[in-house]
Amino acid sequence: MTAPAPAPLDADDFRRLVETHAAELTRYACGILSGDGDSARDIIQDTFVKLWQSPPADRSHLRAWLFCVCRSRCLDMLRRRGRIVGDDGSRAEHEPDEAPSPARALADSDAAGALFALVDTLAPRQREIVRLKFQNDLSYAEIAEITGLTATNVGFILHTAIKTLRARLDERSDLRE
User: Fold this and answer.
1) Cα angle vertex 157, ends 174, 71, to 5°?
2) Residue 85 pairs with which residues in a beta bridge?
3) Phi and psi (nearest 5°) for 26?
4) Based on the structure, what is the number of domains in the chain?
């Protein structure tokens, strides 16, 4: 026997979903877009519009679906801007050098900010997986679904990223206890 199809979202359910997921999706999008909050908010709005327009589906994986759509929209935007960063850390030719924002400079002044700065030095795929795991508390399976990797590969990349962060942290005398 097949399960009944989920009912379409009503306005109250939709509002609750936005309230529940918008902040974490915005943080994730900002991370991919190098802190561009305005573009991140546009992408989050687009993500929720897509949810509203989508036919009802199995909502047991809704959170991963939202992250997947958000990621896809971010990568599309970076492609349009010519700012895609390869897994090896190489950047597209036309990416302008940008001075750190005042908010970024302030965050870098304390140990937590310095740790986030270290995360930003990771290869793009490692950085994305670290953010998905620790900023958004996603499981390996959810991260795999979002990124198109296997859960095993996610675990390996996360392990390598943490190992790299530990080594870089050991090199930074200003962050030692």
Assistant:
1) 95
2) 91
3) -65, -45
4) 2
